[in-house]
Design brief:
By secondary structure, this protein is α/β, with parallel strands linked by helices. The chain has 9 helices and 14 strands. The strands form 2 sheets. Strands 1, 2, 6, 7, 8, 9, 12 and 13 form an 8-stranded antiparallel β-sheet that branches. Helix 3 runs antiparallel to helix 4, helix 6 packs parallel to helix 7 and helix 7 packs parallel to helix 8.
């Protein structure tokens, strides 16, 4: 009789263990987020996993699990995060949770972002102001030929230098992000040599952005081969213009100038999307874009929110250069 009791207890324990194992089994989509998120150490993954499985139970199609996907994205507290279609990279769900205000400053307006900042027809422009001030307007850059896009910026820099520019205004107020490589490759001579910034992940691993002989290296990989010229002296003054609409890689570009001598920042604090994202294929239908590191400058200072300015001035977006008060302020500083 005793043997039967032992056997019964063992069966109960085995059944309980299997039930507990099934209960704690990670959903593959949640597991992918857990493995890659910058915020992994801060989150209650057991709770997230349990709730996600409840919301997606018995459902397989992407359209049917959108509620669960939205819950997962919002739970990360990652305003950069989104799920994309693995087929055409269209957005399935994006972050709609609360956004902590990391510092004061005006907030971006959606209509203006869509009509101006996200205008795919916007192009890089440059011109000489007065006799020796080179003005460079760097807008967001979408997918395309990195070399060709970099050359547009570098050739503008070269032309301005030939015209006599030795002071600079780098206008990032309309920069809504995109591909950082053409921006840094084109402007590399202005940034100076060596480590200029990058990102650091939750394991304290550093992704380096480095300039060497006028070339931009992304994580020790040459982004694209560029002409070493023009030569820009470290003493040449640079005024960087920022706005609430300077976003993501536009912010990383601004951060790359932080810590440079003879450099000032004028305008508004940026949008605060200061994380580097990675794209991971989850399955045949879904891809996950998620923050994997936080931006750092050349002194390895972390930027957990908005990029600040030295001189605050409200952004004017419907004025000619001749009437732009931020540009006027920059010119005064450059000529001091």
């Amino acid at each position: 009789m005793r043997n039967y009791i032992y056997l019964f207890v063992l069966l109960l324990l085995a059944t309980s263990c299997k039930s507990q194992e099934k209960k704690n089994e990670w959903h593959p989509i949640v597991l992918k987020a857990k493995e890659t998120s910058l915020y992994t150490k801060q989150l209650d993954w057991e709770k997230i996993n349990t709730e996600f499985k409840k919301l997606t139970a018995g459902k397989e199609q992407t359209a049917d699990i959108k509620e669960g996907l939205q819950y997962l994205i919002n739970s990360l507290g990652d305003k950069h995060a989104r799920f994309l279609s693995a087929k055409d990279y269209s957005i399935v769900v994006s972050y709609k949770g609360a956004i902590a205000e990391d510092n004061e400053g005006p907030k971006p307006k959606g209509a203006f972002i869509n009509s101006v900042i996200n205008d795919v027809s916007a192009r890089f422009t440059y011109q000489l102001l007065e006799d020796d001030i080179g003005y460079l307007k760097i807008v967001g850059i979408g997918p395309g030929d990195v070399k060709e896009q970099s050359d547009f910026i570098r050739n503008g820099l070269l032309d301005l230098k030939k015209q006599g520019a030795n002071k600079w205004i780098v206008d990032l107020r309309f920069n809504g992000g995109g591909n950082i490589e053409p921006m840094l490759s084109g402007l590399a001579p202005l940034l100076g040599e060596g480590f200029v910034g990058g990102g650091i992940n939750s394991a304290d691993e550093v992704r380096t952005f480095r300039i060497e002989k006028g070339q931009f290296y992304n994580y020790d990989r040459l982004a694209c081969a560029m002409n070493e010229l023009p030569k820009i002296a470290a003493t040449e003054k640079i005024a960087v213009l920022l706005s609430r609409y300077t976003i993501s890689s536009g912010e990383m570009l601004a951060i790359s100038f932080k810590g440079r001598e003879q450099t000032t920042f004028i305008g508004e604090p940026t949008a605060g999307y200061t994380t580097g994202t990675g794209l991971d294929i989850v399955n045949e239908e879904l891809a996950l874009v998620i923050a994997q590191d936080v931006f750092i400058d050349r002194n390895k200072k972390k930027y957990h929110g908005k990029v600040g300015v030295d001189t605050y001035m409200e952004f004017q977006h419907l004025v000619a250069i001749e009437e732009d008060k931020q540009i006027d302020k920059a010119m005064v500083w450059l000529n001091q």
